Queue: 4 jobs
Job 1
Amino acid sequence: MGMIISIINQKGGVAKSTVAINLASVFAQYSKVAILDTDVQGSLTQVVEDNENLHIIQVNNLTELKTLDYQVIVVDTPPYLSNQLPQLISISDFIIVPTKAGVLDSLALKATVALIKSSIGALPVKWGVLFTMVNTSSKVIDEIKVFLEQMEVPIMKSIVTQRVSYVRSIIDGGILKSNDLKAKSEIILLAEEIVNELEN
């Protein structure tokens, strides 16, 4: 039974697919990895077809994910709250909620956070908000962290900064093929943080 990492946010434009393909690429260095693209646009499906280390999978029922012969399954979700999400949340091992470090983006998290909390209940599912497209010269991220802490939302230590290499990574088959050492380091640290959280 593989580790299921779901990437969820009802808001579009927060780098869900970028995080999905790059995280999957890191795990694919030493694990058998699949991506489930539940977004009807299927944009990630088209990109991954050219990456021999990643497999795109389709399932009729989300519970099938627990039976598949993969060590890691990364699930990319659509930019809205679909009726599949409660079930997906309940079978996930880790949920990443990517968001930009902005006031409106943080306010938009409320529905996603409420859904995650209600779907997890007493289940041993771990999750956290991941700041993406971060402008490292801005101090607003500290204010947003305070706001999220008041909502009792776990915040991941890892961040994904705003870099051209991430935009290109979708076309190039993942950030690991880039020369951007900083971006590579960010995604590797994200993968390590998830593994460490699940081992504790």
Job 2
Amino acid sequence: MRNIGEKSPIVVTGAVIVLAAIAGFLDGEKMRHGYTTVRIERGTVRTVVKASGIVNPVLMIEVGSQLCGIISEVLVNFNDVVKAGQVIARVDPEAYIAAVKKASAALKIAKATAELQRAALQRARVAVENARIASKAGEADLAAAQGKQDEAERDVQRNTLLSRTSGQGFPSGFPPQGNQRYRWRIIRT
């Protein structure tokens, strides 16, 4: 048989639970809060309500964008009805404007560099043409100098004095001095 002392903690615990339930039921009307709906007005906050829990939306739609950045303007509010294609927010365009300016500057630099390269190419073509002309002028000067040397050598050969008679070379007293004159026959070859 069981001892009454063993049952007493279980009985006491059950009795406490029953009494607490009865007390809560009887005091339940005092614990009910009433809510009043009023128009929104400006004023000071008189009561602060703190609550914890999770608020779940009735319908959840994810909104995505192909751009990223800081939102500068939101054009709709929570629970507003929106249509397909309607603008709901604007991204701050400053970063994109800066990117366009940077790309524009890079394009201008590339155009200027290309123009400089074209000018350098043109200068190189002119330098090549000047070198060709200088080479042709040098060849012409060489040909002219060679021609003058050949002509001088021919003149030396043509203007050789030949003796009138066989035997003796120059007569005594050559070259002539004073009023003496000699007649020499010059043979051109």
Job 3
Amino acid sequence: MVQEEGRHANIQDADTSAIHECIVENLKSVYDPEISVNVYDLGLIYNVQVKENKADILMSLTSAFCPAADDIIADVTAAAQSAPGIETANVEVTFDPQWGPELMSEDAQLLLGIF
């Protein structure tokens, strides 16, 4: 049995956690074509939930008028679906909260010269 933050987790929890981690790693290979940083480190991914064989992803875009929006969403969907055990991925785009550079990882901020 897996011990998780003071409680006992079942094997399904451990599997879900591993799948979640795999999805996050896959998302790090999806880039906004206009910015040389992946969508995860850009802070565009707000939430990833895994339940059984489905992934639900809540994300934003750098702009509501992003010309690459369809491609980015398709790539995020494909990245989630390529995780083991995931058959369906639902990607929802929101602008609440609005994306801003403060959501970027420290590495992304350094790469883009934002301090």
Job 4
Amino acid sequence: MPREGSRRAPRRRPTAIVCDPVSASPISTLQRLRADHGLKALRYCGVSVVNVTVGVSVLSICHGVLGWPAVGANLAAWMVSTVPAYLLSRAWVWRRSGPHRLGGEVLTFWIMALIGLALSSLAVRAVEEFTSETVFVVLGNLCAYGVVWVAKYVFLDRVMWRQATKG
């Protein structure tokens, strides 16, 4: 309740932006996405930058410097980058704290991470059939994870760490 003499207007709920796929313009769709996801999507991108930097660094060192096969280097990159990705996503992107739920969070996140590992391993193995150049192995890895990236955000946001809707 505002104090007497206070000029602050009462807080209003933002107007919902409805998206009708038949009549929605690209601008209205972007406005809805910005309203629905805004800073959370930017935080997700930030976590992804950290995760990609760590993963690509490990992949490049293991494959390009140490001479490991692409799939082994990809596995090492996945092992090093997945734990920070989970912790940063949970705490920073979706603002979760407290105990980690093994079945509801940890295992689910790791299953999604394993799907990404499987797709990226197939991609780097396919690339290695044509060339052993590390830059192409890294590109194969990035393309595979790019496919998983959007689906993972939607799943984490809508299923695993969905926010309770306010009345």
